[in-house]
Amino acid sequence: MYDSGRLKVYLNALVAVLAIIFSVITLTRPLNTLLLVCYFSLSMVVAFLAYKFKVFLQSRTQEKLFTAGQIEHKTQADKWKPLLIFMGAIIFALILPLILVFVLEPAYWFLSFTSIVTGVSLSEIILYYVGRQSKE
User: What's the number of domains the chain is made of?
Assistant: First the structure.
């Protein structure tokens, strides 16, 4: 199920650990337990959503590999829909932090940005371990 190398997983683990350490140090300077709880909660939500999205994309890729020899009768819109959704998600993820800078306080912007980084890194690690278990 997981086709990327170990180096990518180690790099994601390093990014996740550094983001967690940096966030905990930054958010505990003036001890604010609510911000820490929000950080870890949002990180877990982002990790879950990113994991589900990656599993969805991998299942679509495997489905296309299985049906590559068969004749497909899809319209042009059906062929472009997953790519448009993926590109829209990437553009949204890139623009969201810039929008949040102008809307939120610095602490909440920092919290949202670092929890996105942590969540996406954790989802890659989870995907690696689930894929490794399915191979065994």
Answer: 1
